[in-house]
Design brief:
About 40% of the residues lie in helices and about 20% in strands. It is an alpha/beta fold. The strands form three sheets. It has a six-stranded mixed beta sheet with strand order 1-2-3-4-10-12. A four-stranded mixed beta sheet has the order 7-6-5-11, with no helix packed on it. Strands 8-9 form a two-stranded antiparallel sheet. A hairpin with a 3-residue loop joins strand 3 and strand 4.
């Protein structure tokens, strides 16, 4: 069952494109903004590809709960999780998505590199990054912010799986020696097989005692999603540029609460701004992300 889809990134792209087209932006700054646009678009493409595979195989199933694009804050630490798959035995697959169109390589020291136009560029380990996400998720349960399902009065301890998903067309070069985290790297279309193999290899008779009902699974997943805290990123501040003056002059100021024209829910300023920048699509109205899908 699909509990949450990914948040819409179109307002971020609209802001970046507006900044890139601004007057007086230094050429090197414009280049950085354009690179950020490509990065965001690439990330969205990779996440959509992975989400398609996950939704196709596990979306209709009552034995699994699917969560996409989850941002949580626990005790001052933040985790931006691309995908979560939760099973009725409380196996939780934490998936970090990377869209390496030209491929990636991992050496014998556990160092990662991505390829761009045939050249390798060093990068941080997505496996280690995802470890931190799992730590924050575990903290969410330990603090009691989200209650774990119970059996005979005892909380069921989840079994966390660290997964790094790359494009099904990406080239993956692995080390010849055993390195931690390498086995977690899979192509997006191999995820179902990975989950099935893990289930088949679990011969612990006590695992059956962890089985929870579909309704309990859904409630647990929705409790996690309730902790989702999306953030409006300050792109202008990141690149040290001002927003386009003619756009600022044309935009209403957020002096009062912004309301969706269609459903009357509160709308964040950056979402309203996306509507103002796309008047040909939305007219004079302001619409929340859900209502924007109708245009």
């Amino acid at each position: 069952m699909i509990i949450k889809e990914a948040d819409d990134k179109s307002s971020d792209l609209a802001m970046l494109e507006s900044l890139a087209a601004g007057f007086g932006v230094a050429p090197n700054t414009r280049t950085k903004i354009e690179q950020e646009i490509l990065k965001v678009r690439s990330g969205v493409k990779g996440e959509r590809e992975a989400a398609y595979e996950i939704n196709f195989h596990f979306g209709p199933a009552k034995n699994y709960a699917v969560i996409h694009d989850l941002r949580i804050e626990v005790e001052g630490r933040v985790a931006q999780i691309d995908h979560l798959l939760i099973g009725r035995f409380l196996d939780i697959w934490v998936c970090e998505t990377k869209n390496f169109s030209d491929g990636l390589a991992i050496n014998e020291e556990g160092e990662w590199a991505r390829f761009y136009k045939g050249k390798p560029y060093g990068m941080g380990s997505p496996f280690e990054q995802n470890k931190k996400h799992i730590m924050v998720l575990n903290s969410l349960f330990k603090t009691g912010t989200v209650q774990l399902p119970t059996r005979l009065g005892f909380a069921i301890k989840p079994n966390m799986h660290n997964v790094v998903m790359v494009s099904k067309d990406a080239r993956v070069t692995r080390p010849k020696t055993k390195v931690e985290g390498v086995e977690s790297v899979i192509k997006s279309d191999q995820f179902r097989t990975m989950v099935e193999r893990a289930n088949e290899s679990d011969d612990n008779p006590l695992t059956v005692a962890k089985l929870i009902g579909s309704e309990t699974l859904e409630n647990f997943a929705r409790a996690i999603v309730a902790q989702h805290q999306p953030i409006a990123f300050n792109w202008a501040g990141k690149f040290g540029v001002k927003e386009r003056s003619e756009e600022i002059a044309a935009e209403p100021k957020p002096k009062k609460k912004l309301i969706c024209t269609k459903c009357s829910v509160a709308v964040e300023f950056n979402v309203a701004r996306f509507c103002w920048l796309n008047k040909a699509r939305f007219g004079e109205g302001i619409y929340c992300r859900d209502c924007q899908q109708g245009f």
